[in-house]
Amino acid sequence: DIPILVDLKTIGEEGYSKVNPLKYMFTGVKPVYSLETKEGYSITATGDHKFLTPDGWKQLSELKEGDLVYIQSGGIFSDTSELPIKDEIPALNTLTNRKTLTLPTEWSDELGFVIGMLIGDGWLREDRVGFTFSEKDMYLLNKVRNIISEWYGDVKPVKRENDVYHLSYHAKGFVEFFKKLGVKPVRASEKEVPWSIFRAPEKAVIGFLRGLFTADGSVQGTAEKGVSIRLASTSIKLLKGVQLLLLNMGIKAKLYKRTKKHQKEFVYTTVNGVEKRYKGSTFYELIISRNSKDRFIEKIGFESKEKMNKFSEIAPSKSYKDKFVVRVKQITFKGEQPVYDLIEPLTHSFIANGFIIHNCGEQPLLPYESCNLGSINLKHMVKGDWLNGKAEIDWEKLAKVTRLATHFLDNVIDVNNFPLKEIKKMTEKNRKIGLGLMGFADLLIMLGIPYDSEEAEALATAIMEFVNYHSKLESVELAKKRGAFPAFKGSIYEKGKLPFEGVPPEYYDKVKSKKFKEIIKKRPPVDWEGLKEEIKKHGIRNSTTTTIAPTGTISIIAGASSGIEPIFALAYERHVTVGRLVEVHQLFEEIAKHEGFYSEELMEKVLSQGGVQGLSEVPEHIKRIFVTAYDIAPEWHVRIQAAFQKFTDNAVSKTINMPASATVDDVKNAYLLAYDLGCKGITIYRDRSKDVQVLVRGLKKSETQKMSPEKPAATSVKLGTTESVSTSQDYTRRAKPRPRPEVTFGRTYKVKTSCGNLYVTINEDEYGLFEVFARLGKTGGCLASYTEAIGRLISLALRTGVDPNEVVEQLVGIRCPLPILIGKHRVLSCADAIGQAIKKYLDTRNEFSPFMKQKIAVSKEKKAEQPKESVTPKIGFSFVPLNPDNGMAKMPKVLHSEELGASDKYAGWSPQCPECGGILEFQEGCAICRNCGYSKCL
Question: What pLDDT sits at residue 77?
Fold first, then answer.
């Protein structure tokens, strides 16, 4: 589960909330655009993604330079104090040649402060962690020293030249502790906020920001011209991360790029204590002003007394209030990338990179209008003994509930706290409400009516007409007491019209079903003409009263079928800690026991195929009633939706389920039928059109085995986890690698190692890195098999959902006896080289991802776009072009060792002993095999 942050102001409440989306969905590879604001905030999204603006929700494609967009004005933090690497701490505590460490296992202000100081005025290398202090900052040195002494033991500072002091910590476990928390051993321009800080509780984030601003922040300006708090860095990635952390605390910061005109002098101290100064041609500055600077001092502050005193001396007593809106600077096309969608059930919006964006919409609205939805559970509108065929609709109860629900939804408008005065004004002007239904499939079952039948189609219209009629009656009664909606004058109501199509009175007479005639006969009459006259006379309280919205969450809570959908499957399998449970649809289990054909074996069969069609144990009349989504022809899906649409003011939410065998013409015919029958919208889903789908109908094992390996059978297993929910077979509770697609996209890197040239091919699919092949160009035998094995195991890990950064962390730093130096960069071993290649791919993948749609086109493009010399990686990588004929890498000719000159041999000395195959150790300029005694000096 990946929680997201939602702004509750979008639903009229205060504050923010963490919500787990109902589902995430891969929606394909689509064109994306980068939105950049003048304040430095940025986001990449599709053109149809909606952003909250002062003019309501707007699609990205509708925004232009100068437009205003809302950003978050606060947020919430993780409530988990445990470090995400808590389980690794015991091993790290003993990863040292000195006494055992006592590393923290929980977040604290102190830990956050140390990480902030480390990012700002410290360094992280493979062999040590260090901090630099000037003589005037000895109190800061002592603070950091005292904090770390609780974890490491006391370390005395070392005084360097120019009155500079160093605190240096050499234990391997201590270095790995910070690396695992996301601190990277990189140059200043590549620094970033560690990933763990984004998941840390508020106290740790405050500590981190205080440490970073203490190290690299400043207070500038005067009381007359204005005061600001600033953070400068050559790393834009670091400042963008800090900008988001500040925004989550309600602190707005603007990001500026400074060029030669605003050159800033940077000062750093070498490990020998020599102070050096240089002017950066480009740097970036984060500026906090207005009342955000006051909030910064109040919430975060500086550890530096000098900076705190300076702020107190020059800051004005009152500050202008920051407005949490930003202005669009530019929108640029960024190519095509894999795109995902999600369903957020609370506000239908969420926070992304500080922006308030919309995930979906079930009801077309005017600018600033709001959704006010409710649903009646039809399962509870049935009276009588349904098991013995004596069930009937309780029309009196349905009328009463409809009128109560209408009154309730109208009250919601009056008691609601709206986030914007414009939303309040528009909502109160039109007073739209959307009363809908759920449990329709359950009602049909209890009445003994098949979903795909003329009876069900007519009943859908009859029920919706009745609900709409009584909701309008109640709205008129409310208008008599409270007044009509303010925009009534000039509306269709004033002209005697209604916002739906309806049917003529003789519509129901044409239905031949005897059962339906009995049902409609008992329904109280509706008088639309009389209602129109009442509306003309008294007005109506709500401009619309009915909408059939999705009820995925509330129907589960209510124990009812979803909306007006048919049953998706009659049985599901759930894995819990005590074992495996088979969950059967309640009504099917009741009728099976009542009719005497219930058995555990039968339930397993139902589970296996998701329905009862074809099972001889189930009576035919039961099979006819208990049809599931994929038992129903697409035409009947559309007809049922259209039947409800006839008496629905707004749109109807319904999915037209199609089998995997559905053709383009099938989809076309469904669209045209929906248009002809008057539907306002239509959603079609073809089974298994996605590699992983949220709901899956059960399959027999034989059917599962016939499925293409590119389309996994009925399962909703999350990659990289051991949890599974299946409606087909009993999968083991182990992670399953996803199948390999026929075509993948990737790159091959050439890395020089002491064993020769290593060619590392990295491929990806829409879910990320997928496989790695490693091949040595000069060596065969065991060494080549080892590199192949490493590649296979990495591929297995990636296909199972392991984070590729975790793979990099395991490989980078592994040493062999013969590391080599290429320029200023070391390659420690073949494993280290593979890890570096993967890291290079991850760091640069935005330049060439997503995977190619057409391998020939992309191959030619990649061949034409050879990297310029100025950006050639410094660790000896070179790109190997792809063969346009087959999409595979063109490998250079493999040279045997006897074809190489002596200098070539020694530049790539093999760690294998030529006599016995043992490992060679590099000591004192010679290669020595301790296994057989072989030695050779270089």
Answer: 84
CA distances from 851 to 282, 542, 714, 758, 890 (A): 33, 50, 26, 23, 19
Q: Which amino acid is at 581?
A: L
Distance separating alpha carbons of residues 179 and 164, to the nearest angstrom: 26
Question: Are 908 and 753 a contacting pair, CB within 8 Å?
Answer: yes
DSSP run (H or E) holding 519:
helix 514-522
Cα–chain-centroid distance for residue 798?
19
Position 453, amino acid? S
How confident is the model at residue 19, as a pLDDT? 44
- How many Cα atoms are found within 13 Å in the side-chain-facing hemisphere of 214? 29
In this structure, what token pair is assigned to residue 200?
């840390």
Residue-wise pLDDT tens digits, 199-230: 899 999 999 999 999 999 999 998 888 899 99
**Which residues make Cβ contacts (< 8 Å) with residue 173, sequence separation at least 6?**
91, 92, 93, 94, 95, 96, 101, 103
249 contacts: CB under 8 Å, gap ≥ 6: 74, 75, 202, 205, 206, 295, 299, 300
What the block records as the tokens of 439 is 């449990």
Q: Where are the alpha helices (DSSP H) in 153-232?
A: 172-180, 195-198, 202-216
The 10s digit of each residue's pLDDT in 498-544 is: 888 788 878 898 888 889 999 999 999 999 999 999 999 999 999 99
Please give the Cα distance from 93 to 153 (Å, whole number): 12
Is the whole-model pTM more than 0.85? no
Rounded Cα gap, residues 64 and 328, in angstroms: 7
Q: How far apart are the C-alpha atoms of 147 and 642, rounded to whole Å? A: 68
User: Which domains does the chain show, CATH number per domain?
Assistant: 4-73+324-358 (2.170.16.10), 86-314 (3.10.28.10), 373-549 (3.20.70.20), 745-890 (no CATH)
Query: What is the Cα–Cα distance from 689 to 66, expressed in whole angstroms?
Result: 40
The sign of the CA dihedral 46, 47, 53, 56 is negative
Q: Distance between CA 665 and CA 652 in Å, rounded?
A: 24
- Residue 158 DSSP code: E
Q: Are 44 and 52 in contact (CB under 8 A)?
A: no
Distances (CA, A) of 901 to 895, 909, 927: 11, 12, 18
What are the backbone dihedrals phi and psi of residue 683, each rounded to the nearest 5 degrees, phi first?
A: -125, 125
In tens, the pLDDT along 597-612 reads 999 899 888 888 878 9
Backbone angles phi, psi at 433, to 5 degrees: -130, 160
With CA atoms as reference, report the closest residue to 241 among 202, 209, 282, 281: 209
DSSP 262: G
CA 810 to chain centre: 26
Q: Does the pLDDT at position 636 exceed 60?
A: yes
CB 797 within 8 A of CB 818: no
Return the ∠ at Cα 161 (arms to 155 and 164), rounded to 5°.
50
Helix (H/G/I), strand (E/B), else coil: 712: coil
Q: What is the CA radius of gyration of the chain?
A: 34
b/e map 652-662, b = 16+ CB within 10 Å: bbbbbbbeeeb
With contact defined as beta carbons under 8 Å apart, do 816 and 830 qualify? yes
Categorize the per-residue pLDDT at 254 as very low, low, confident or very high, splitting at 50, 70 and 90.
very high
Q: For residues 182 and 169, is the Cβ–Cβ distance under 8 A?
A: no
Q: Is 524 helix (H, G, I), strand (E, B) or coil?
A: coil
Q: Are 716 and 724 in contact (CB under 8 A)?
A: yes
DSSP string, 598-663: --HHHHHHHHHHSS-TT-TTS-HHHHHHS-BGGGS-HHHHHHHHHHHHTT-SS-B--EEEE-TT--
Q: Please, how many CA atoms are within 13 Å of residue 59, restricted to the half-sphere of its CB? A: 8
Instruction: Give the whole-angstrom CA distance, residue 755 versus residue 774.
Output: 13
